[in-house]
């Protein structure tokens, strides 16, 4: 272990991965609670398209990642009722952006890289072990900022997620919260692309949150569990990738997250068979 952490690329990976894991766990909890997991799936493909559009234009992939992903997230929220896009909106955007991604991939490989697909592969599957110290620090800071914003708006967002009609009647800015939350999802998706890749973002957002939802109904407990499981998935996944080289870190991270969800589901089922509540009941 000491030899592993003496490697600079491991230090950079853990720095960026810790921030991303925390943000993904917190944002993912509200994605599951608000039944917006399909939205995250669509935005993961938007991240792919945005990065390739920037590469095709000769720009930094991160510029396309953030600009396009956040813009589409806001656009989908604006088309939805009270900042919540429905499946028709998401499906239409999903298909259109995926088609654009294929177009930009063809354009990039034919005009910018002479057929070299290494950059596009990094977008699809992540390249956390290739982050520089500066890039890892920026990634971690952005992810921590997202996490702090989620914690700051957690109470009204929880109210709006559980009963948006009553929340709106009580003066909660439901639509603004919905749009703001989608921006946070977009930023998280863009950042997580560097760690697990555009194709696997959904797993890091959904699996830890789904596991937490199986274990407790208490919102604060569930948020903490989701963030903890996501962090553990990143930490253990990075260690497993290093120890089992050449296993890619995106695979090992998602493998740990999936095992955590499977374990939570098995525990939940066992409780049901014993006649106990499937999840912990909230305190009275």
TrEMBL record:
Gene3D superfamilies: ABC transporter involved in vitamin B12 uptake, BtuC (1.10.3470.10)
Domain of life: Bacteria
Region forming the signal peptide: none
Transmembrane segments: 12-32, 52-76, 88-108, 128-154, 166-189, 195-213, 220-244, 250-267
Chief place where the protein resides: membrane
Pfam families reported for this sequence: ABC-3 (PF00950)
Compartment(s): Cell membrane; Membrane
This protein's UniProt keywords: Membrane, Transmembrane, Transmembrane helix, Transport
Membrane association type: Multi-pass membrane protein
Family, per entry: Belongs to the ABC-3 integral membrane protein family.
Protein name: Metal ABC transporter permease
Species name: Rugosimonospora acidiphila
């Amino acid at each position: 272990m000491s030899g592993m952490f003496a490697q600079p690329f491991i230090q950079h990976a853990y720095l960026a991965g810790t921030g991303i894991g925390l943000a993904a766990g917190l944002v993912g909890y509200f994605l599951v609670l608000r039944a917006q997991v399909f939205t995250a799936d669509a935005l993961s493909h938007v991240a792919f398209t945005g990065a390739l559009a920037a590469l095709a234009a000769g720009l930094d992939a991160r510029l396309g990642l953030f600009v396009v992903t956040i813009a589409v997230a806001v656009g989908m929220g604006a088309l939805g009722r009270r900042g919540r896009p429905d499946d028709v909106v998401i499906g239409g955007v999903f298909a259109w952006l995926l088609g654009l991604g294929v177009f930009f991939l063809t354009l990039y490989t034919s005009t910018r890289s002479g057929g070299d697909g290494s950059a596009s592969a990094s977008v699809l599957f992540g390249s956390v072990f290739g982050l520089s110290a500066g890039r890892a620090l920026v990634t971690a800071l952005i992810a921590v900022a997202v996490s702090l914003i989620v914690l700051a708006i957690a109470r009204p967002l929880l109210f709006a997620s559980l009963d948006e009609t009553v929340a709106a009647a009580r003066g909660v800015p439901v639509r603004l919260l919905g749009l703001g939350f989608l921006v946070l999802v977009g930023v998280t998706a863009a950042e997580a692309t560097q760690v697990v890749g555009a194709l696997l973002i959904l797993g890091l957002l959904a699996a830890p949150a789904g596991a937490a939802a199986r274990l407790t109904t208490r919102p604060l407990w569930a948020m903490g569990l989701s963030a903890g499981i996501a962090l553990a998935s990143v930490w253990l996944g990075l260690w497993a990738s290093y120890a089992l080289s050449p296993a890619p870190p995106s695979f090992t991270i998602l493998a740990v997250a999936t095992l955590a969800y499977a374990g939570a589901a098995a525990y939940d089922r066992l409780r049901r068979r014993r006649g106990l509540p499937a999840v912990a009941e909230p305190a009275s």
